[in-house]
Design brief:
- By secondary structure, the protein is an alpha/beta fold.
Length: 166
């Protein structure tokens, strides 16, 4: 029977958890209990991952890669990215700042939802714990994203990593 969760110096500090407290009567520890408990974080690096609300395979893949090495992620997404793979990962804090991203929405609706996203994003950045922001995609208002928003990130002392898909 496993008594404690292993800790290594290559990963952030994990709690030493006595799994026998959650063991079944036959001595087996349920796999889902092992996975959820062993992912408990006391400390470690944390980043914000800002997605464009789409390209699910890329966004999910990068989130999985980051969390697999012990990095905690504030995942900024949309309704389309609010999936069990993210919600079940204890190292991911999912923030649905984008909401509904349906392409068939009216132009006014699209403009308003981008405006509301910027308001939510600005509020989030002001109080966000992560100091590193990985931006996967910009919005349609690239002039705003590449100038004023970048200045704001810098004023808030955030370090930026930008994925260029060109």
């Amino acid at each position: 029977m496993i008594n404690e969760a292993p800790t290594t110096s290559a990963r952030p500090t994990l709690t030493s958890i006595k799994l026998h407290k959650i063991a079944k009567a036959d001595g087996e520890v349920p796999v889902n209990a092992q996975l959820s408990i062993l992912n408990v974080r006391l400390s470690g690096p944390r980043i914000a991952l800002l997605t464009g609300g789409g390209d699910k395979p890329y966004a999910l893949g990068i989130a999985a890669a980051l969390t697999s090495v012990g990095i905690c992620v504030d995942f900024i997404g949309s309704d389309d990215l609010q999936v069990p793979e993210l919600l079940a990962n204890s190292r991911i804090h999912f923030l649905n700042l984008r909401g509904d991203q349906r392409a068939e929405a009216a132009l006014v609706t699209k403009v308003l939802r981008v405006f509301h996203y910027y308001v939510k994003l600005i509020r989030y950045v002001a109080k966000a714990e992560p100091n590193v922001f990985h931006i996967l995609w910009n919005n349609k208002f690239e002039l705003f994203d590449h100038t004023l928003l970048m200045i704001y990130y810098k004023l808030m002392r955030k370090r930026l990593v930008i994925t260029n898909s060109d």
